[in-house]
Amino acid sequence: MMKIPKKYKNIIICFMVCFGFVGSGMRAETWSLDGEWQFAIDSTGSFSHHSIDNISGWRKIQVPLAWQVQFKDLRDYQGIAWYKKNITIDRLSKNKSVIIEFKAVDYLAYLYINGKIVGQHEGGYTPFKFDITDYLSEGKNTILLRVVDPVDSKKGTEGISYWHIPHGKQNWYVQSSGIWQSVFIHFKNRHHIQKIYVNSEINGNYQLKIRLNRKLNRNQKLHLQILDSDSKKVVQKAYSIKARDSILQLKGNLANPQLWHPQHPNLYTVKANLDNGDTVKTRFGFRRFEVKNGKFYLNKKPIYLIGALDQDFYPETNYTTPSEDYIRNEFKTARKLGLNLLRCHIKIPDESYLKIADEEGLLIWTEIPNWDIFNTKAARRASQTFDAMLDRDWNHPSLVIISIINESWGIDLKKEKQRKWLKQEFNRSKRKAPNRIIVDNSACYGNFHLKTEINDYHTYWAIPENRENFDKTIKDLASRPDWLFSSFGDAEETENEAMMLSEFGNWGLPQLPKKVPWWFKRDFLGREVTLPKNVRKRFDNYGYDKIFKNYNDLALESQKAQFSALKYEIESIRKESKIQGYVITEFTDINWECNGLLDMWRNPKIDPDEFSKLQSQDVLIPRPERYTYWEEDSIRIDITFSWYSDISLKGSRLYWEDSMGERGKISIEGIKSEFVSQIGSLKVEAPKIDKPQKLEYKFQLRNNQNKIVSENWCEVFLFPELELKTNTINLYDPVKKMEGLKSAMINQGYDFSSKKSENQIILTNRLDSTLIDRIKNGKKGLILVTDSLSMGKLFPYNIISRKSEWYDGNWASNFNWINNNHPIFKDYAFERHLGFEAAYASPEFVVSGIPENNFSDVLAGMYVGWLHLNSGYIVQIKVGQGTMLICTLNLLEQYGKDPFSISLLNRMLTYLQNGNANPTLEWEF
């Protein structure tokens, strides 16, 4: 069994304390049964509650915690298992009911007390209770729980297949079987209150539904109190309950209620007690969340949703919430990052998750965990899961959105019957949860909506390479394209749905502890790029230590690239007034999946102070006309303002300052009442410089009291006019595609009219046998790869399109690095990764298959995921007596337009001319 971390030993201590209560009669209202239980697997399904004492392989197991987390040999075990625990009750009272409550058991649970079956429960995410009063005896009692988590096959386990049950993304990371949430025994009066349901309105009206466990045997009084967030009594009333009643409906009004809002999460407490002493309390908030005319409104005021996907997995406890303090700390970090929403993805979280969200002021979007294959049983289970979740979470004001399906997982939307079910389920869910927003299918490419209150979409693009594709997607989304809804004639689009980009993001590798976690050996369903195992070995083998101090240093650089990409994407989204929110993928890393704002251990990968400037109701968006400029060029930066708060902007002023100390004030053209408007432009002349330089422009919008309303920044990249150091170029153009480049180079000062000389550099975009022979005999060549044929058939390595799967860097992001110590990039590189300075020269191809031992001859390149698919953008290679430099960046088209492309081509030619190239990579013939 795994060693329990020190910080979880409090679970055991809690268990021991509770046992103290067990041995001393009925002093505690509630006993926690968390802690140590006995556990045994039943892989053949041959045991029964009669033969359980014959099991010899009992182990100690901690509850709550999935068995996969605790036992290495059971990491992938699904099937049948047994839990056993003995408790001692000194005496039983005829006036008390004993209730056992399991907060969540995955998946199917059969409960036995003292050898007798009590009942069963199906569903891995929601609580269940049994009255076990009549099964107990004074003294020792044995609790036995048989758990079935069905296997992944058509047959399944005992007639239930994993394919057809809600399970979420457990199979992406690690399964979570067994008792994964807490267990309690409650001692209640025979007649007691089971639950209080609260419906509240922002005008102070409230309706209470109070459910008793059974009909009363006599008339009683119910005493009601409502306390505000300062524990002040604001309502105190008594109501008569008639005998034989089991449901009580109450109404009232509270004058001037304190509304629940992310900035002011005011919570009220309802306390109800019967004459017999039974008492129950719950918390709620006065809030209204709705969609009207394509916008989100919270308490009748517009709100822009700023969210992150949260898969609610934890580094040591997997599905199980470590503690309320843990959740509170990460939610506080979420608020520091500027988030006001978490989309708890494909999982119904522990109720404490919503409790802390209520307190910290985070909106929660949750989803029914998906199944794999649709059938009538899967549909029934989905409905039951929704109902049980809603029943548990009814009073939480933080819960505002619920999805039925994500990306059509578990449903085939090409089939009419399944579409019909989804639309019916939307209508049913909306009736069940009138105070929540319902999403039918959170859509991505290849699937769509049928009827929904949020018209959302998911897209992943590597940035900056695919910034134009990303922007096009955003503009398309904002236009409400037809492809967002069913084309089968059964869509019910109202055009009042709120538009959202509810998934997008980029990877940034986490820093790692010395000892890597157990999940390092696991990948995503055989996709190599997602396998962390041996990442440090790959770092060493590919020679990244020549650029980065160690793996963790590279990880930090990849996080810089992640931040830069997210900044661009968020700003592009905020520029579109029709889009009313977004959800970043994702809040935290999960094992091998590394697109979190925090890593798996909840360390920020993105600076919260800087990031929160982008994540606000009011955001300045400075977007340069271009990213690259020559010195003394005219720079233009347009400033857009996305304004959703109710702060007054009368008399506001816009200030700017650059990283060289220049500053000024921009005349505001007028901030319109629309949610998004362009408010001004900065037009300045770039300074004269002696080497490439990054210039940062900071902007502040201040109100008439000089308070900062919003601040943001952008960067441009400046290049000096450099004297050419080589003029001996031979343009080799057998396919006649380089005339444009030749003209551009002549404009830059190159002379192609001089006679051929021995020192001439051959420049081409086509390698053929003639050119190979010339280089073998001592020539130097620069080959610009412009298509898959550029390197010919004889080239020993692979030219692969960046549009190929995984090489495109979408979802599992690529990282574009450069060797900033190499002569080509020395005093030229802005970072150790290619950013927006190379936006116009983004490569469409890579050179793949270069041996690890020769990877020092890759001067710029990329990897995908966990340092896989290591490939080159600029590669030097020895060819006989000559040298060849291969470049896949898009310089052929950009030379003459883009200062970065011009400077890079000039530098590569100079490098070859100077004779510094001494590659170890050799083309052997």
Per-chain topology:
Layout: H1 9-22, E1 30-32, E2 35-41, E3 59-63, H2 67-70, E4 79-89, E5 96-102, E6 105-106, E7 108-113, E8 116-122, E9 128-131, E10 139-149, E11 178-179, E12 183-189, E13 193-200, E14 205-212, E15 220-227, E16 233-241, E17 247-253, E18 260-261, E19 264-265, E20 268-274, E21 279-284, E22 289-292, E23 295-298, E24 301-302, E25 305-310, H3 324-336, E26 341-344, H4 351-360, E27 363-367, H5 376-393, E28 399-406, H6 416-432, E29 437-442, E30 454-458, H7 467-478, E31 498-504, H8 535-541, H9 551-574, E32 579-584, H10 608-611, E33 618-624, E34 628-630, E35 634-643, E36 653-658, E37 663-666, E38 676-685, E39 693-702, E40 708-719, E41 729-732, H11 739-747, E42 761-764, H12 769-776, E43 780-784, E44 798-801, E45 814-818, E46 845-848, E47 858-864, E48 868-879, E49 882-887, H13 891-894, H14 899-913, E50 922-923
Parallel strand pairs: 25-26, 25-32, 26-27, 27-28, 28-29, 30-31, 31-32, 34-40, 41-42, 42-43, 43-49, 48-50
Antiparallel strand pairs: 1-12, 2-3, 2-4, 4-10, 5-9, 5-12, 6-11, 7-8, 7-10, 13-14, 14-17, 15-16, 15-20, 18-19, 20-21, 22-23, 23-24, 33-35, 35-38, 36-37, 36-39, 39-40, 44-46, 45-47, 47-48, 48-49
Question: Overview of this structure, please?
Answer:
With 925 residues, the chain is α+β, with helices and mostly antiparallel strands. 17% of the residues lie in helices and 33% in strands. The chain has an eight-stranded parallel beta sheet with strand order 29-28-27-26-25-32-31-30. Strands 41, 42, 43, 45, 47, 48, 49 and 50 form an eight-stranded mixed beta sheet that branches. A six-stranded antiparallel beta sheet has the order 3-2-4-10-7-8. Helix 3 packs across helix 4 (351-360). The protein is globular. Residues 1-27 have low confidence and may be disordered.
